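Chain A, query sequence.
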Amino acid sequence: MRRFLLTGAVAVAALAGQAHAQQIKIMTGPQGGSWYPLGGAIQSMLSDNGISVQVLPGGGVANAQGVQGGMTDLAFGNSISVVDALEGRAPFEGKADNICLMGTLYPQYFQMAAPADSGITSVDDLKGKRIVTQPVGNTAEQVMRAILQTAGTSYDDMRSVDYVSYSDGVGLVQDGNADLFTAGTTAPASAIMDLANSTDITMIPLTEEFISKMRAEINPGYASLTIPAGTYPKQENDVVVVGYMTQLIGRCDLDDAVVTALLTDMWAERGDLATISAAMRDITIEKMRDEGGVPLHAAAKAFYDAN
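Chain A, predicted structure.
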């Protein structure tokens, strides 16, 4: 490990001159999720190499559109949304041709939490309820649509739908103005933990059959994940949920020096990143280079080949 760190430091020093004065943008996600603080960490890492980074808000769908459209240089993305963009599937128009993978980071869990007295114990109970989802452009909102579609219902059958940030959504449930909170992020999610610490909640499970139907009818990138019992207060049983992988994506023509500096720092400081998102504790080079249907940036491929 020590030899790698020394090698990485020399490499970054050599690249710093090339990357110096670079100004790039990175799109993250809503406050309360894991992407926002991870974006700040990347900003700090790259600034040490003379690369100025502007952190922008975003969401899984909007971020893929931002990279393809040249509105951002880097972004966090979800495997389902990025592959949809490359294939030109809705909500994207036309196949994306300038999105490349920097690294695959960790799984994300789409989580549904309802007050224990809401009467909601499965997706079959959602009709006529007041639900909270994220603004359009966030992958979590796209997944909520997919779940309702698979369940044979839609937003039109709900009493109300609020498209808000995680923090605002928690407030709506706490104030008795919503029956279901949703989030696509790591587990435990800080927003759900905040809710559970003030309100008795039920985590709404899916079945393996339901998730298989989502894969077959909507997107093959969906995966079955399990939130272990005890993840949240009073959660006595494992909860099966639908999930997907978090990816760091960027423009395929992004400067090689920036990509190399980014990945060198992320790997060297992966322990610090794991303090921000515990899901990154088990990160490996093999997992990072897993393309998952998204082509690697040339400099990223070179980095993984060398390590």
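Confidence is low (pLDDT under 50) at residues 1-19. Strands lie at 23-27, 52-56, 74-78, 99-115, 130-133, 160-163, 181-185, 201-203, 223-227, 239-251.
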